[in-house]
Amino acid sequence: MKVLLATDKPLAKAAVDGIRTIVEGAGHELMLLEKYTTPQELYSASECADAMIVRSDKVTKEVISSAKNLKIVVRAGAGYDNLDLAACTEHGVVAMNTPGQNSNAVAELAIGMMISVSRNCFNPGTGSELKNKTIGIHAYGNVGRLVAKLAKGFDMNVIAFDPFVSPEKIINDGVTPVSTLEGLYEKSDFLSLHIPANEQTKKSVGYSLITRMPKGGCIVNTARKEVINEDELLKALEERSDLKYVTDIAADNQSLLNEKFGNRVFATPKKMGAETAEANINSGIAAATQIVKFFSTGDRTFQVNK
């Protein structure tokens, strides 16, 4: 089988080497497409692929249609909104993700961004500490749990809301569950976002939630930009000069936010959550392993489409 590793943002060399060892060790062929600049390059490269590994690369219906032999595509990471699941299902392609492999990298970034904004983005002036502040975890999955663990190391008060996780499980981690989303925002000096982007969550974080935050509150978004209602975020920041917003996914109106609010807002130049060598290796190795298992035993453990 031919396995295409297609990454416009290349994985670390150690990750590529590890993927090659796993793929070729199982008797398959590895093809590389790195730093490509047009969709047509991906269409062409995928034409003979039986399997595909991607990062944030968009696997559209056009890609799926071009890849006549494609049987499985794996997103090396947790989020999979870059995969057209309907097209995958229509063409009989199994779509998978690699949950948990990038979690520590994202969690560390979230904490790092909190420190940065608390210290005025390291500009001159008196900042504040994380100690004794309350951090609210919006969605208590793999990343949320790790953020909670790291935040406790800074002596922060950690609370969480997730309707899909039992309060008992949250309590067992030494974290306080909150019964309502509104209550989470009302109590959080820092609000760490970890919800996926889907039809229920897109633009769900807007004015009514943001303005519930205490004085000096800060939203930290290492999830997806689509979950923020950007027009309402702008309105909230205009009305509440104490609020802050830091994100790993620049808003569509980021230049306007930067112009109007200065150090109260910050966006990484390019999504950096999984940009560590360790996360590259973990997610890449997981993706390659899942493909090999799929071809050898039909394993579909991490399938995300139906």
Which CATH architecture of the largest domain would you pick? 3-Layer(aba) Sandwich
**End-to-end Cα distance:** 23 Å
The chain-level mean pLDDT equals 96
Count of discrete domains: 2
Stretches where pLDDT falls below 50 for ≥5 residues?
A: none
Strand tally = 12
**Helical region count?**
12
Report what the structure shows.
It is elongated, with a radius of gyration of 20 Å. Helices cover about 40% and strands about 15% of the residues. The longest helix has 21 residues. The strands form two sheets. The protein has a seven-stranded parallel sheet, with helices on both faces. Strands 2-1-3-4-5 form a five-stranded parallel sheet, sandwiched between helices. It is of the alpha/beta class and about 300 residues long. Helix 1 links the parallel strand 1 and strand 2.
List the helices and strands and how they pair.
Elements lengths: L1 E6 L5 H13 L3 E6 L4 H8 L4 E4 L6 H6 L5 E4 L9 H6 L3 E4 L5 H16 L15 E5 L3 H12 L3 E5 L5 H6 L3 E2 L3 H7 L2 E4 L13 H4 L7 E4 L8 H10 L4 E4 L6 H8 L3 E3 L9 H21 L9
Parallel strand pairs: 1-2, 1-3, 3-4, 4-5, 6-7, 6-9, 7-8, 9-10, 10-11, 11-12
Helix pairs in contact: 1-12, 5-6
Q: Outline of this structure?
A:
The chain is α/β, with parallel strands linked by helices. It has 12 helices and 12 strands.
Key descriptive features of the protein:
7-stranded parallel β-sheet; 306 residues; alpha/beta; 5-stranded parallel β-sheet; Rossmann fold; 2 domains
